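Minutes, project check-in
Item: structure for the 586-residue chain
Input as provided by the requester:
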Amino acid sequence: MAVTKHLSRTLVTCLAACAAAAILALCSPVRALAEGETGNLTVTATEGASTKLRAYQLFSGDVTDVRSGRSSEKVIVDVSWASEEAEEAVTSAITSAEPGYRGTTAEDASEWLRDKVQGDKDVAPEAGSVPAAVARALSHTSGPAYDVTAGETVALPEGYWLVVSDDGAVGTGQSGTAAILALVGGADVTATTKAAAPTVEKQVLEDSGDAWQKQADATVADELDWRLVATVPVDLTAYASYSVTFHDVLSAGIAEPSGVRVYVASLSEEAWGNGTKPGAKAGWTELVNADPNSPAYTTSYDPSGDEPTFELIVTDLRRSAEENGIDVSAGIRVCVVYDAPLTQDAERGVEHGNPNTVTLRYPASPYTEARGETQEDEAIAYTWDLNLVKRSSLDEKPLAGAVLRVTDDRGRHLTQEGTWTGDDATVTTGEDGTISAAGVDSGTFKVEEVKAPAGYVGVTDKLVVRLSASLEADRISHHLEKAADPEELSPGEWALVATKPLELASFDPDASGVATAFVPNAPEGEAPPQGGGGGSVAEALRRALPRTPSTGDPTSFVPVVCLAAAGVALIAFAIWRMRGGREDRR
């Protein structure tokens, strides 16, 4: 009898323990990490993908590796829902994608996912949206999740898992992954993130070569085209919508953008290359705001502060592309072009220039409202000042009252107000003798003297000044070197040349950006000798001595100066001998 009571107490104790274990298993949302019921998962992050991830278990079960020839396949049996949240999220997503779905069990749902999402039996057109819908639902619940770091192996309970990004940890220039489905158990499992961060590039159109570059120069108030190209290398079908914002920060010397145009193309199309001004291009579709109540894009401009800002928002890139028949499953490009001229407030020279920067803001992942942002990209526009100084060829005194016609290489004339016009116009020098073409593009300028200053001989020669700056196309440089050969400029070089009797004074392309040339006039009565006659010895000596340029080594002219001086001395000696001979004959 004692033995029987002892056995009864033992049996009751065992049954109680088993019941307690069963209750714990039923109450726990995720199966316990018991030995033999775990598997290893390692996720590798692609470039631009966030490395901080979250893993949600959808189904529990026994996972084994079934080998068939040289390959093996994971199989899950004894399938059950891992949590109530998982059951609700998965069932809702499947029925939304396939309204005729009649599955009732966890096994039905797991087979549907394996066949139509991971397998090759995708007969439901919207099956690809199911993982995104499940991830979106689970990320808004308090259901259990595991932290996963890309590149590190984590042990998880056997079963069917969904891995997504931790949206709160998506950094600058990163993007969250599309949902990853993985059967964990048996042999170690590896997976790769399905993400690549968008990028954006800014360029400015250099009109001399009709090329999009990182640097360009222009005349103040002239059309100046800027281009933004965003590359979005992600499957947009994973997103319910995909809004992108181009955020520009402009220099104070850049005017408000206008003439905005937006184009989209599949990533399978070639990028928008050089030599293409704003307009249609094969493979690219222009977005048009046909419906004011549902615009394809919006723009805003804020001139307050030291640096104005301009924003362009493509409200739903996925919708706009699909409405135009563009495949978005492999990613998409967006090209924005606008005109933002330089103003008279623009910085001169390349030391500072007039930067225009852009960042792209985009959805951090398909599942939350969090936004990611790219690294900043920049393009710069430059402009120069050209001063023409009228002065006396005798004593270098500034000359007022000279009337000049200055023509740029577009055939426009400089006005007294410093603007350019297609009508005939002239400028008159003031007391300082200076005419300033403020804020000009590099190029060729013709100078014609319409009226000479009072008391001075007019210049009838055709005068030309050529200001050249060869800006590097693919990078921003804040310095220019003087060209060894002004006729052949290499990238990063400058040249300033002029026809006689113009005299070049200086050009500082870096700090001030100011080029200066002298336009001399000879006083009446001191005109250069005609046919070799007339003129004083002092005047002959002055004209025989070449001017030392502002650049170069003046000592290189010493032999010439000596020869010129000797020649004048011989002339004076010959005159003296001739006069002496006449005196002797008297």
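Outcome recorded: The helical segments are 2-27, 84-97, 106-118, 130-138, 317-323, 537-544, 558-585.
No further action items on this chain.
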